[in-house]
Amino acid sequence: MVARLLWEQDVAGSNPAAPTSNIKKENEQKKSIKETEKRINVIYYKNEAMYMNCKIKIFHIFCFFMILSFSLFSFTGISVAEEEELNERVKNCINCCNAKTQACFNINPDRRLCAVELEACVATCKSEGESSSEWSDCWSQSEP
Question: What are the residue boundaries of the structural domains of the chain, listed by start?
Fold first, then answer.
């Protein structure tokens, strides 16, 4: 009779009895990859939330300035018609100042004096008659 080894003692064939790769190491690597993916997702969503918060803040700032500009420009106390009338009066006053400047150039040989009077007259017109000049009659004559 031939002596034979038990099956446990046989030499392993093409399908080895023990695994050739380290399963524990592979599982740790997979776990590490999943944890890294989770961290990346957390960072991404944090950045996304920060981005959305920033957009919301910018929108609120925009709305604030729109409301502020509306309140400033709509409640000035001067209607559009009054403002146009005032602008027309200021234009008429400045035209009067320019006409007086031409007359001054004809009378006065020193053009610098005429230029100074023109500046004073225009300042009177722009201040709506509040300041005075030698030509302040232009404001009273400029009624529309």
Answer: 31-75, 80-141
Q: Tell me the C-alpha distance between 90 and 124, whole Å.
A: 9
Distance CA 29, CA 78 (A): 75
CA–CA separation, 125 and 143 (whole Å)? 12
Tokens 């957390």 — which residue? Answer: 42
Contact (CB, 8 A) for 123 and 133: yes
Q: Report the distance separating Cα 83 and Cα 95, nearest Å.
A: 18
pTM of the predicted model over 0.70: no
Tens-place pLDDT, residues 26-57? 788 888 888 888 887 777 777 777 777 778 88
Alpha-carbon span 23 to 51, nearest angstrom:
42
